[in-house]
Design goal:
Layout lengths: L4 E5 L3 H13 L3 E5 L2 H11 L3 E5 L7 H11 L5 E5 L4 H9 L4 E4 L4 H31 L8 H14 L5 E4 L6 H11 L7 E5 L5 H9 L16 H4 L4 E5 L6 H13 L1 E3 L6 E3 L3 E6 L3 H6 L5 H7 L2 E4 L10 H16 L5 E2 L1 H9 L5 H15 L4 E2 L6 H4 L12 H19 L4 H8 L3 H10 L4
Parallel strand pairs: 1-2, 1-3, 3-4, 4-5, 6-11, 6-12, 7-8, 8-11, 13-14
Antiparallel strand pairs: 9-10
């Protein structure tokens, strides 16, 4: 297509000029090199989209350059231009990744046709890579390299091909939903619906209708029949997020779905059939809820066929750079910004933080840094204050006792707020303070 950048590598200036003139007329941007050595330099500096390469050249011949490109830039399309006496060499060049070859003198229309095909193929490969990168960014859980994550990936790949129920356990923000989606995308149900249900957002009555549907007239406001999530997800996957918060009455109906694949709409008498794979997630200890009679024991055993425990980010800090890189690419691409480096001091702060909010908190921090950063590096000044103020160990000798107390108080309240997702009501309970007094402290200490 026009605007693509083409590099002509040939020691004959007349051939270079002849090709360059015709390519420019077609809207291509043209670079030229008289040898393989100069061609390699221009490839590294200017990143062309396609190379027209002669074989017989001084300093570095075309075949040597091609061998280097096969190792370093195997996705760069190369078309060989060769004299009649070097056809055998051209065939050899095909073994090292050249797309095609043309004998000199070349017909411009023939060159343009081969170029068009090569560039279309490259565009398709680039788009596929983009989609793979997007999937990885949307599901970064699958890129962790720690021993714990390798084991989780192995388990996810094994269980994906079955219909078995999966129970994902872990703290808030560890990526339970991401892992559920990754399992779904690996399964043979990936072309069918993925229906997510948050078990905490609706009242018991509305949740029952949302899951199983209702008949017309089943309750006030039910003016027509409605299909529920289990019906809509037929032959697909239902993801029950925060399953530990399911009311007991709905747990009974869910158990029936798991056992028999059937349910009744609210207000209905006819049984509806569904074929769904269930993936559930919770940050609670279900066995403890069973002991407290808050969760059905039979449902617990039925749902706990294959369980996957995701460790908190603080227990797998070797994965931190992987996630940082992933989130940087995601948000820089969304904001159309170049990807900055992480300064050494910034990385030290990120590594020394305990991440109570796990991966979700890390992504928020990286997104904030991308928004606020204007240079080539992300520096500590664009990080939230909480990350830079870590613990009482940061207190320096030389402060007055009152200053040290104020600094520690600020740090401690900040950490508590972070642990409660900035809920002042919950933080006040943990700190043993009245909420109004905590609010005054927050304002007085300048906590944002």
């Amino acid at each position: 297509m026009a605007e693509d950048k083409i590099l002509i590598v040939d020691d004959d200036p007349q051939i270079r000029m002849f090709l360059a003139d015709r390519l420019k007329v077609k809207g291509y941007r043209v670079l030229q090199a008289h040898s393989g050595k100069e061609g390699l330099k221009k490839i590294k500096e200017d990143s062309p989209d396609l190379v027209l390469l002669d074989l017989q050249m001084p300093e570095m011949d075309g075949l040597t350059l091609l061998k280097i490109l096969q190792k370093e830039q195997s996705d760069l399309p190369v078309i060989i231009l060769t004299a009649h006496g070097t056809i055998e060499h051209a065939v050899e060049a095909m073994k090292y990744g050249a797309l095609d070859f043309l004998p000199k003198p070349c017909k411009p229309d023939h060159i343009l046709l081969l170029m068009q095909r090569a560039l279309e193929s490259k565009t398709l490969k680039d788009e596929n890579k983009y989609l793979r990168d997007e999937l990885q960014m949307q599901h970064p859980m699958v890129v962790g390299n720690s021993p714990a994550m390798k084991k989780i990936k192995e388990t996810a790949e094994k269980v994906a091909g079955s219909k078995s129920t999966v129970l994902i356990l872990g703290e808030s923000g560890t990526g339970k939903q991401l892992l559920a989606r990754a399992i779904y995308h690996l399964s043979d149900r990936r072309e069918k619906p993925f229906v997510q249900v948050n078990c905490t957002t609706l009242s018991e009555h509305l949740l029952e209708s949302d899951l199983f549907g209702h008949e017309k007239g089943a309750f006030t406001g039910a003016i027509k029949q409605k299909k529920g999530r289990f019906e809509l997800a037929n032959r697909g996957t239902v993801f029950l997020d925060e399953m530990g918060d399911l009311p007991l009455s709905i747990q009974a109906k869910l158990l029936f779905v798991l056992e028999y694949g059937e349910f009744q709409r609210v207000g209905g008498i006819d049984s509806q059939s569904t074929d769904v794979r269930i993936i559930a997630a919770t940050n609670k200890d279900l066995s403890e809820l069973v002991n407290k009679n808050l969760f059905r024991e039979d449902l617990y055993f039925r749902i706990n066929v294959v369980s996957i425990q995701i460790p908190p980010l603080r227990d797998r800090m070797e994965d931190l750079p992987v996630f940082i890189d992933c989130f940087l690419k995601k948000h820089c691409r969304a904001m159309q910004k170049p990807i900055p480096e992480i300064s050494q001091r910034t990385m030290e702060i990120l590594k020394n933080y305990s991440w109570p909010g796990n991966i979700r908190e890390l992504e928020n921090v990286i997104e904030r840094a991308v928004v606020l950063s204007s240079g080539e590096k992300i520096t500590p000044d664009v990080l939230p204050e909480l990350l830079s103020v870590r613990s009482a160990e940061d207190l320096q000798v030389g402060l007055s006792l009152e200053e040290a107390q104020q600094k520690f108080k600020k740090q401690f309240i900040l950490k508590t707020l972070q642990q409660t997702n900035h809920s002042q009501t919950e933080a006040a309970k943990i700190l043993g303070l009245q909420r109004t007094y905590l609010n005054r402290l927050i304002k007085g200490l300048g906590i944002s």
